[in-house]
Write a structure and sequence with these properties.
Blueprint: H1 2-29, E1 34-41, H2 47-57, H3 60-69, H4 72-79, H5 88-98, E2 99-102, E3 109-116, H6 119-136, E4 141-144, H7 157-187
Antiparallel strand pairs: 1-3, 1-4, 2-3
Amino acid sequence: MKKATLILGICFLVAAVLTPLTTTVVTFLLPETFASSAKLLYATNRPARFETAVGKIISRSSLNQVVANLNLTAEWGRKYKQPGQLSPAQCYGMLNKMIQISMPRNSSVIEIKVFSDNRDEAAAIANEVAKVYRRATSGGALIGRAELGLRPVRPNKRLNITVGFWVGATLLIVGIGLLVASRIALNQE
């Protein structure tokens, strides 16, 4: 029992050192993601209408128009080092995954948020999605153009590193406690 406690204590101490180091290294290796949001004033608060608006914003025809207007087939073909252009279907699938639409409760504002590894691209796409939606519908006024994200939204480096160090500190305390317990057990013999 004493030997097992000693070994377990040493394992916790090793984990206490490796956890913050690993967390820091992985955090800095993760790709950065930027977000930009365009905001539209929507004509009604009714939830059914909001669902309709979301459907129109992310519809295949709307997003295909965004792909065409921003020439994303060629841009993303170059960006992802493809021999030619990407197909509109590929671009639609990628674009659909980049967009998040929300409407705060008791509000008539629709937020179109776009995530990308490129801050310029995120802002351009968010603004274009809002523009295409406004052209396709009679309602909705643009109240906030998407601007360049100053800092990446993912990964949250400060949070990740802080959590890594707190977990490491917790493991350190447990490891020291186990080592002290094994030392006390050895001295009692």
